[in-house]
Design goal:
This protein has helices at residues 3-18, 45-56, 73-83, 102-113, 137-148, 161-173, 189-198, 226-234, 253-267, 272-286; strands at 33-38, 58-63, 88-92, 117-125, 130-131, 153-157, 179-181, 202-205, 239-240. By secondary structure, it is of the alpha/beta class. Strands 1, 2, 3, 4, 5, 6, 7, 8 and 9 form a nine-stranded mixed β-sheet that branches. It starts with a helix and ends with a helix. It binds zinc ion. Zinc ion (ZN) binds next to loops.
Length: 290
Amino acid sequence: MSHAARCRLYVGLALLAKLGATPALAADYAGPLVDAHSHVPNATAIDAYVAAMKRHNVTRIVLLAVGGVQKDDAAWIAAAARKYPDRVAPGQPLPDPTAAAAATRLDGELGKSGARAIGEVHIRQVSRKIDRNPADPAFVKVLEVAAKHKTPVVIHDELTAEAAKALEAALAAVPSATIVLAHGGESTPEVLEGLLARHPNLAVDLSGMHFQRTPALATEKGPLDPAWKALLVKRPDRFLIGIDVWAARLFEPAMLDRLMTWTRRILGELPPEVAERVAHRNAAALYRLE
Ligand SMILES: [Zn+2]
């Protein structure tokens, strides 16, 4: 293509974007990318992950615990943060979020660990028969400690109408605490739109909504779901992208390549300023990543 033809193409694409039409050739998002939600299954998997980060310009990973399933989570996360201090933002495990002593213990741990996130905290997970009340007084105390340390709490909460009501009670109980609802709460854009409108202290991570899971934002090659896209454009400051790797098989380099490529592709379907926020700016602000 000649220089002049290329200029005409760019001007045409810019015009289309201004008109709100999606250019046929939406390019992958190419800016910085923070994985705001992932896990490691052992002490060494982080090496393969960091190698993939370098291949795909993933700048930071927020490394979270898996809610008491892995007893060595705290040690693995701390070791990964020591080995890769510029890349790994550590999360503080909280396996017993409604225990009477949880808040006091968390207060002491956060003071020492310098964690940037608390969690992942399992509030409601059907497959593991976990069903906790986030408005439980013990968890409200956890939220107060989180607010004091300005550290968001990442929760796994598979929303039903009843679970959403309980979550709203927790959000209202401690407005100064930020709750990050992981995996979009396995909910719908319609439900999240209402929650986000009513609760400024709620953020949503889109981790684990990739082509291997349901609900997914998109298949591996297909377009970003229009209802999700509309909500991201409406509330660009409230969403974080994440990959949610956890099992050892997901750390195969080819699988990490597919997941990261998919992530950049769907972000590329968003208006550039929305993509920037969801890809890294919101995570950087929320988790204090310099
Ligand atoms: Zn997770």
